[in-house]
Amino acid sequence: MTSSPDAAHREQVCATALRELLDLLAQDAPAEQFARPAAAARAAGASGAELAAVDEATQTALRVRRTLNQHQRREAELTALFDTAGDLAALRDLDAVLRAIVHRAKLLLRTDVAYLSLNDPAAGDTYMRVTDGSVSAAFQNLRLGMGEGLGGLVAQTARPYATGDYEVDPRFQHTATIDSAVLEEGLHAILGVPLRQGTHIIGVLYAADRTARAFTPDEGALLSSLADHAAIAIDSARRMEETRAALVDLNAASQTIRAHSEALRRAEDAHDRLTDLVLRGGDFTEVATAIGALLDGGTLIHDADGTELARVDADPRTPPAEAVAASRASGRAVPLDGTWVCAVLAGPELLGSIALTGRPDLGEADRRLFERAGVVTALLLLLRRSAAEAEDRVRGELLGDLLSLSGTPGRLTARARRLDVDLALPHAVFVAHSEAASRRLLLSSAARAARAHRGLSGLHHDHVALVIPADDTGSRARALAAELTQATGAPVTVGAAGPAIGPEALSLAHAEALRCLSALRALGHTGRGADLPDLGFLGVLLGEDTNLDSYVRRTLGPVLDYDTRRGTELIHTLRAYFACGMSQSKAKDSLHVHVNTVVQRLDRIGHLLGADWQSPERALEIQLALRLHAYTSASTSTSV
């Protein structure tokens, strides 16, 4: 039995509908197009059973389409996750990692906004770190307390949360700050998942839309997978930054070690060079030159008294007491007005100081090198002091033997010659005394003075004595008293005698110098220097070889010479003036001249003898000289 033409047509319509459904599946056509084959069958007059078969095939095709779409979407998501993992693995900068994570989340979930917050353990909250698609400044700078809002709840509970419309969702703890920022951004649907590192939550990753909608479990799973990748990438980036920082620190430490090693090597080399220079007998100028060459500056070396010992490429200057004291207290070199000053010490004892000019920017390594130079300078000063003390002992022994005449004059002269002292030349003997200065300081100061003048010094019969080449004993005594007073910081009185030639004469001169010193102290002339002639008639009385003519000449010489040249009688006028009790009116009667003549003669005498000639002390000296002059003149006349 054959079917009717109508039945055949309907079967063809149904077969056509099934083929079209298959074509739509093959074309991945939109879902709404799958209703078209059923409509065509219905229009062609298909029976109810046939239409039911077409509808069932349509539903099956739609299910197949959804399954295919799900597989395609999963495949795309997996591909995207693998791409994300690859992209994140290639990133090394933390900021770049975070921006890549947020941007990928926005693309994968096709949302309006994506953002990421990180927990702040110190503040106890979570803060917005990176956003993509955000337009609100308030939202971009938002901080959420733990448990506040959706993000705060995710950060606190370590569980993902989603809302279709945040503004009206009662599950979350709303705050004015959070709600205002979300409203300003215009967000409604929000999905947040935790960023985990092991058991620790380090932040939250979000995807959000500006329209209300529900997030599917697949979207939540996708964002969570991305968050897991992100957490690993963040941890890797942080570790990379820590490693990079550690490498930077290691490199800096390595450079510091190299610089320190180089500084040590340079310091040791400089110390060896300077020490070798000292041990080879180098002087202060050679040491100063070496220091200046090592540190590229000018150098000055002073002893403890501020006396310049050496100066190279620098202007003369006094060592600043404050800077020397500061260096002595700290044990370090100190800067002052562009100059570095270092105290030279032997334990607590100050031996001197060195100064470095032209290097105001002295670095730590060069500063320590300069301080090492101070140690070497101390070694040189100690060696020189030891040598000087040994030489002073030898010179002191010779001085004692010379003034005591212990030995033959010939042997004493030979010993002196070995010390570069020529006793065939005129020498003066000086005896120094100070009530305030210590004996040791006075003795060392006298030794320096003696060495400077190529003489001898030492302690003899409990007094500091010196033998120094001199012709004018009195002026040398005054200069020596001033020099020793300055060196010791206390008044030093100096008695002198001489000049004398040879050991025997020097021994006698020493006794006279002691008498002179005793007279100076008895007269209260502390801190002065003089020889016996400087003491006037007292010197005449104390001197063993009394030279009356010398005393008269020292006292009246200018007047005697004036009378000789001019044929005047000023000496006669002086005798008459003093004989009349220093009365001008009585003197004019005695001289049988007008008083104006007496006044004129006395004025001339004042010009010749000095303005103080009528003072009690000078008047006494002049009257004694007048009497001695009369005596010597009478003796000469009698002998003739």
Task: Briefly characterize the structure.
This protein has 640 residues and is α+β, with helices and mostly antiparallel strands.
Topology:
Elements: H1 5-27, H2 36-43, H3 48-90, H4 94-109, E1 113-120, E2 125-132, H5 137-140, E3 143-145, H6 149-157, E4 161-163, H7 176-185, E5 189-197, E6 200-209, H8 217-279, H9 284-295, E7 298-303, E8 308-312, H10 321-330, E9 334-336, E10 339-346, E11 349-357, H11 364-404, H12 409-418, E12 427-433, H13 439-452, E13 456-460, E14 463-469, H14 473-488, E15 493-500, H15 503-522, E16 529-531, H16 537-542, H17 548-566, H18 570-579, H19 584-591, H20 595-609, H21 616-639
Parallel strand pairs: 15-16
Antiparallel strand pairs: 1-2, 1-6, 2-3, 4-5, 5-6, 7-8, 7-11, 9-10, 10-11, 12-14, 12-15, 13-14
Describe the structure.
- Strand 13 and strand 14 (463-469) form a beta hairpin.
- The longest helix has 63 residues, at 217-279.
- The chain is built from 21 helices and 16 strands.
- Helices cover 60% and strands 16% of the residues.
- The strands form three sheets. The chain has a six-stranded antiparallel β-sheet.
- By secondary structure, the chain is α+β, with helices and mostly antiparallel strands.
Largest beta-sheet characterization: 6 strands, antiparallel
Helix count equals 21
Structural class: alpha+beta
Using the CA coordinates, give the radius of gyration.
58 Å
Question: Quick one: overall form?
Answer: rod-shaped
Q: Helical amount among residues, as a percent range? A: 55-70%
Portion of residues in beta strands equals 15-25%
Q: pLDDT under 50 segments (min length 5)?
A: none
E-strand count: 16
Mean pLDDT: 81
The side-by-side strand order for the widest beta sheet comes to 3-2-1-6-5-4
* Span of the ends, CA to CA: 207 Å
